[in-house]
Amino acid sequence: MFELLGIPPQALFGQLLLGLINGSFYAMLSLGLAIIFGLLNIINFTHGAQYMLGAFVAYLLLQYLGVGYWGALLLAPIIVGAFGIVLERLMISKLYHLDHLYGLLLTFGLALILQGLLRNEFGISGLPYNIPSQLSGGQNLGFMFLPNYRGWVVVASVIVCFGTWFMIEKTRLGAYLRAGTENPTLVGAFGINVPRMITLTYGFGVALAAFAGVLAAPIYSVNPNMGAELIIVVFAVVVIGGMGSILGAILTGFGLGIVEGLTRVFYPEGSSVVIFVIMAIVLLVKPAGLFGRTA
Amino acid sequence: MKKTGLIVGGLAASLMATSALAQDIDVKIGVLNDRSGLYADLSGEGSVIAARMAVEDFDAASKGINVEIVSADHQNKPDVASNIARQWIDDEDVNVILDVPTSSAALAVHEVLRDSNALMLNSGAATSDLTGEACSPNTVHWTYDTWALANGTGSAMVQQGGESWFFLTADYAFGHSLERDTAAVVEANGGEVVGTVRHPFPGQDFSSFLLQAQSSGAQVIGLANAGGDTVNTIKQAAEFGITQAGQSLAGLLIFLTDVHALGLEAAQGLVLTESFYWDLDDETRAWSERFMEAKGDMPTMVQAGVYSAVLHYLKAVEETGSTDAEPVMAAMKSTPTSDPLFGEGEIRADGRKIHDLYLFEVKSPDESEGAWDYYDVLATIPADSAFRPMEEGNCPLVE
Asked: Could you list the residue ranges forming a coiled coil in this record (chain A) (predicted)?
C-alpha cells in the first residue's frame, strides 16, 4: 500500500471528509456574516451567540414543548431570526450612520450578555441533545465510518449556502437588495421599502446562524460558549474570503475546513492557528481577500 | 516592594503574637478559578460556596477569626492567573489562594507564591509536577493529581486486558503530565503506547483525532484531557462507531459534572478515578445535600477539596494564632487531616495531601435510581498507595 507523506490514502480521505464537515459550519456562519456586512455594513459579533441560541432553542423546544429535531430545524431559525429583527429595530438600526466600530462594540456586548445569561441559567458543561433516529448509525465507506448525521450536515449546508447565493445574486429580490445597499435613496424612490428590506436581511442572516446552531446541537454539546470560540475563526474565514463577498464566504468556509482538517493530521498542535496564519498571509498579499473587490 | 512586604508581614506577625490570646485574626481567602469557561461547572462558583460552608462549619467567628472570601476568574490563562495572584498578595493581603484549576495556571500561581507570605491550597489542577521537582514550601496539592489518576484508571484498564494505548492529549501542561504519568503506568504493567496526538485546548471537534486513534489499532484510547473536551470526545467516539468497533476509552480525568453532561446513556461503563463522590456515606450525603441547596448541582471532588482545605487551614490558623505562611504551613503538615468528606489523611513534606481514592464505574441508565446517582464503587485505593511515593517525586523539600 503506498503512502502519501507518511499517511495512508484511506486515512487522508477520511480527514478530507471531516474537514469538509467542519467547513460546512464555517461556510454557513461566514455566509450569514458576509450578507449582514455586505448589505448592512454591520460587523455582527453577535453571530456566534445567535448560533448558540439556535442550539439552545432546539434544546428548549424539545424539553418543554416536545418539538423534535426536524421541527426545531424549522422553528429555531424563525424564533432566533425574529429575535434578531427586534434587535435590529431597537438597537442596531440606530448605528448605521456611525463608524463600523460602534456596531462591532454593540454586537460584541450583546454576545457577552447572551452568553452570560445562559451560563447563569444552564451552566457550562453542556446539555445533551440526541441525533434524530432517522439519521443515527452510519455508512462504512471503506476508508472511514461516516455517521449519517455528518453526511446530512454537509448536504444541508451545501443546499442552504448555494440557495442563498442564488437568491442574492440571481433573483429579482436579490437585485433589489444589492441595489438598496448601493443607493438606498434611489431604490426607495422606486417605491421599495428599503429599511424593511434591511431589517429582513438581518433577520435572515441571524436565522442562518440559528440553523447552523440546530445542526450543531446533536454533535457538539449545547453550551453557552459554543459560539464564542467559533465566531473568531469564522471572522477570519470572512476576512480571507473578502468582507461582504457571498460566494467568497461559502468557498473559503469549505476550503478552510479542509485545510484545518489536513493540519490536524500533519501537525495537530497547529490546527487551531492555521486559519489565522492564512489570514495574515492573505491580508499581506491581497488585502481585500481572495474574492473581494478592492474599493 | 518585597522588602516592605516582609517588614509589614513581620510587624503584623509580632502584633498578632502578642494578641494571640484574644485571637482576633483577619483571614482573607482568595478562590481563584475558572468562572466562565469549560471548567466553570466543576470549580467556579461551587468552590466559593464550598469555601463559605467550611467557614460556617468551622464557626470561625466565635473563635475570633474574621474570614473574608474573595474570588476571581483566571479564564484558564496562566498570565491572568499570576497577575491576579500577585495583586491579591501584594495589594489586597490575601493569605491563602484556593482551587486554581488548569495546570498551566496553577504552575504560574505556584511560582508567584513561592517565597511569599501566602499559601496555595490547590484543589482543581491535576499536574503532579506541583509536588515533584518544582515543589514549593507554599503549596499543598489537595484533591488528586495526574499520577494518582494514571495509577488508578490506567492500571485498572491494563489489568482488564487493554495493553496497547493511543493517547489523545490536551496540548498544555496538564495533558502532557497526565500522558507522561499514564504511559509510565501502562509500560510498568507490561502494556505499550503505540501513538499520541495532541489537540489544541480547548477544542470542539475531535473526530479527526479520534480517527487517527482508530487507525492506530490500539486497544485503549487514553483521553488525557478534561471537562468539556472530554465530554465532546466521548460523544464523538460513540458517533463515529469507535467504541462499538471494540476500542475502549479510558477517561483519565472525568468529573461528576462531565458524566451529568454526557448523560448515562453515553457515559455508562466508563471507569474513572476520583477522590470524592457525594454518595459514599452518610456524612458525604448530608454535606452534599447542603451544597445542592446552595448551588443546584451536586459537588465535584474539586469543590469538596476546597471545603476540606479551608477547614484544615482554619484549624492551623487557630492553632498558631497567625496567618503567616511558614508557621501555618508547618502546623498544617504536622496535624493529620480529618473531615467528613475525605476522612483521615495527612499532608506530606512535599506538599501532597493524601487520602483514599476510589475507582468508580459509571452506572447504566437502568441501574441509576435517580438524579445524580451515577457511580458504583469498584475499589478503594488506600491513601498510602494512591499517590506517588515521595522519594520518586524528587521534591527538594524531602530530605
From this structure: none
Q: Which pLDDT value is given to residue A125?
A: 80
User: How many Å lie between the alpha carbon of B293 and the closest alpha carbon of chain A?
Assistant: 15
Query: What residues of B are in contact with residue A272 (Cβ under 8 Å)?
Result: 200, 203
H helices within B263-300, ranges in order? Answer: 264-267, 282-295
pLDDT score of B1:
42
With a cut of 50, say whether residue A210 has pLDDT above it: yes
Cα of B168 to nearest chain A Cα, Å? 11
Q: Quote the CA–CA distance of B313 and B316 in Å, as a whole number.
A: 5
Q: Select A9-102+112-285's CATH number: 2.20.100, 2.60.40, 1.10.3470, 1.25.40.
A: 1.10.3470
Q: Which of A10, A59, A125 to mutate to test the interface with B (most CBs of B within 10 A)?
A: A125
pLDDT given at position A6: 66
Q: In the CATH scheme, what architecture does the domain B2-144+280-355 have?
A: 3-Layer(aba) Sandwich (3.40)
Report chain A residues whose CB lies below 8 A from the CB of B235: 219, 221
Using DSSP, state whether B309 is helix, strand or coil. helix
Instruction: Mark yes or no for CB contact B241/A15 under 8 Å.
Output: no
Closest CA to A288 of A248, A260, A231: A248
**Coil, helix or strand for B314?**
helix
Q: Which CATH class is domain B147-274+357-386?
A: alpha beta
Q: What letter represents residue A59's amino acid?
A: Y
Cα distances from B313 to residues A215, B150, B230, B264, in angstroms, run: 49, 28, 32, 37
Do residues B92 and B28 make contact, with C-beta atoms less than 8 angstroms apart? yes
Q: Residues of A with CB below 8 A from B199's CB?
A: 264, 268, 271
- Dmax (CA) of chain A: 68
**Closest B-chain CA to A9:** B215
Put simply, the answer to whether A14 touches B211 (Cβ < 8 Å) is: yes
